[in-house]
C-alpha cells in the first residue's frame, strides 16, 4: 500500500468515527453538515482525500492579550494582530445562517455601547472585538500533482480564486468573500466590552454576513457540481495511433461486419415478405369459405 493510500485509510477512519461523542481537533469538534456531501464525494475518488474543512462561519472574537512593549519612543515589539492566545475567545460563533439574527442580544454577550471614543483610549495593548465572516475552506490531499492540478483548476473555475497547491500535493480551496470588521474593544480597567458602533450598524454588518452565507452556499453547490462532472464522472480517452497493418485489419473487420449486417437485413426482408404472402393467402381463403 502506498503512502498516500495509508494516509487516506487513516483519514477516512477518523472521519467515520467523528461525532459529538468523539470530536476531532477543530474548535467545533465535528464536520459541518453543509460540507458532508462534498467531502463524501471527494473521498470517493481514489486519488483524493479531505484533511480538514469549514463550511463557513460568523464569529465575534475578542482578541487576547498582546503584551506590547515600547522599546524606544515610537518603536514597538511583540505586536500580535488578531491575537488568539492569552485570553482571546469567541463571544459568538455560528456555522448556520439562521442562527445569526440578533446575535448581539444573546445572554452571553454583554455589550456596553460607547460610540464617542477618544483616540487616547486606544493603545498598542488594546484588545479589539472583531466581527468576522469566514467562507468555505477545504483542504484536500491528492495522490500526485496531476490530480492536485485538476482539482485546483476546477476550484478556480468556480470562482475559488484564493485556492492553491501546497507541499505534498495538498490543495487548499478558498474564496475571498470574507468580512473582518472591528466593532469594539475591551476596557482593561473595568473589563467591560465596549461596542463602538450603534445597533443599526451591527444589524447592517449582520445582514452583510447573512448575504455572504447565501453566496457561500451557492458557490459550494457549484463546486460540488463541477467536481462531480469534471473529476468524479469524467471519462478520459486515450488516442492510440494505428499502424498500417492494424488499420488494414480494422477496416477488414468493419467491412465484414457491414456485409454481415446487409445479409441479415436482406434475410429479414425476405422473412417479412413471406409472412405477408402467407397472410394474404389466409385472408383470401377466409373470403372463399364465406362465399
From TrEMBL:
Superkingdom classification of source: Eukaryota
An MF annotation (GO) of this entry: methyltransferase activity
InterPro entries: tRNA_yW-synthesising, tRNA_yW-synthesising-like_sf
Domain named tRNA wybutosine-synthesizing protein: residues: 6-228
Transmembrane segments: none
Swiss-Prot/TrEMBL catalytic activity: 4-demethyl-7-[(3S)-3-amino-3-carboxypropyl]wyosine(37) in tRNA(Phe) + S-adenosyl-L-methionine = 7-[(3S)-3-amino-3-carboxypropyl]wyosine(37) in tRNA(Phe) + S-adenosyl-L-homocysteine + H(+)
Top-level EC class: transferase
Catalytic activity, EC: 2.1.1.282
Alphabetical keyword list: Coiled coil, Methyltransferase, S-adenosyl-L-methionine, Transferase, tRNA processing
Coiled coil: 258-285
Associated pathway: tRNA modification; wybutosine-tRNA(Phe) biosynthesis
Family per similarity comment: Belongs to the TYW3 family.
Protein's job: S-adenosyl-L-methionine-dependent methyltransferase that acts as a component of the wybutosine biosynthesis pathway. Wybutosine is a hyper modified guanosine with a tricyclic base found at the 3'-position adjacent to the anticodon of eukaryotic phenylalanine tRNA.
Name recorded for this polypeptide: tRNA wybutosine-synthesizing protein 3
Organism of derivation: Pichia kluyveri
Organism lineage string: Eukaryota, Fungi, Dikarya, Ascomycota, Saccharomycotina
Amino acid at each position: 500500500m502506498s503512502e498516500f493510500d495509508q494516509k487516506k485509510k487513516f483519514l477516512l477512519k477518523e472521519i467515520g468515527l467523528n461525532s459529538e461523542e468523539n470530536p476531532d481537533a477543530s474548535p467545533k469538534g465535528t464536520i459541518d453538515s453543509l460540507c458532508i456531501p462534498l467531502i463524501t464525494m471527494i473521498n470517493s475518488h481514489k486519488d483524493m482525500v479531505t484533511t480538514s474543512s469549514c463550511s463557513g462561519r460568523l464569529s465575534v472574537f475578542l482578541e487576547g492579550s498582546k503584551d506590547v512593549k515600547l522599546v524606544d519612543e515610537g518603536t514597538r515589539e511583540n505586536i500580535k494582530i488578531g491575537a488568539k492566545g492569552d485570553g482571546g475567545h469567541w463571544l459568538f460563533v455560528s456555522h448556520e445562517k439562521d442562527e445569526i439574527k440578533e446575535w448581539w442580544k444573546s445572554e452571553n454577550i454583554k455589550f456596553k455601547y460607547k460610540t464617542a471614543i477618544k483616540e487616547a483610549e486606544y493603545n498598542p495593548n488594546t484588545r479589539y472585538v472583531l466581527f468576522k465572516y469566514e467562507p468555505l475552506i477545504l483542504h484536500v490531499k491528492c495522490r500526485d500533482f496531476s490530480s492536485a492540478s485538476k482539482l485546483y483548476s476546477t476550484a478556480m473555475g468556480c470562482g475559488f480564486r484564493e485556492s492553491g497547491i501546497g507541499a505534498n500535493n495538498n490543495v487548499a480551496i478558498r474564496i475571498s468573500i470574507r468580512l473582518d470588521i472591528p466593532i469594539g474593544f475591551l476596557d482593561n480597567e473595568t473589563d467591560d466590552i465596549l461596542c463602538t458602533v450603534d445597533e443599526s450598524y451591527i444589524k447592517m454588518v449582520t445582514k452583510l454576513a447573512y448575504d455572504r452565507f447565501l453566496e457561500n452556499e451557492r458557490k459550494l453547490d457549484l463546486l460540488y457540481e463541477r467536481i462531480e462532472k469534471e473529476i468524479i464522472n469524467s471519462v478520459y480517452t486515450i488516442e492510440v495511433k494505428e499502424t498500417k497493418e492494424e488499420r488494414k485489419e480494422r477496416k477488414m473487420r468493419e467491412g465484414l461486419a457491414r456485409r454481415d449486417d446487409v445479409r441479415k437485413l436482406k434475410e429479414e426482408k425476405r422473412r417479412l415478405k413471406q409472412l405477408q404472402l402467407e397472410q394474404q393467402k389466409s385472408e383470401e381463403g377466409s373470403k372463399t369459405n364465406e362465399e
